[in-house]
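Methods — Computational structure assignment.
A single polypeptide chain was analysed. Its primary sequence is given first, followed by the predicted tertiary structure written as structure tokens.
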Amino acid sequence: MIKLINKFRKSKLAVDSAIATIGRIAIAILNFLCTLMISRSLTSAERGEYAILIASIFFFSTILNFGLPYSNMYYAIKHRDLKNYIYGIRF
């Protein structure tokens, strides 16, 4: 077990994945706590205004990303020879 942990700590990809996972869990917990605080402190009319604000932000961020996630996938598939460079894997 100790050898497995040491091997895990030496792998940059594994460490980065663990950090990203811990970050996502922390963000989910903070979102949950913020949702509790907002739902307890706002009236129903204020919650509706808040929902419109959040929906507007989500809508505009979706529209204004200009398809970058899909173009990144297209570029990665088209240039398979640069796969290690695109994904940040350096050997």
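Note: Residues 1-41 form one domain.
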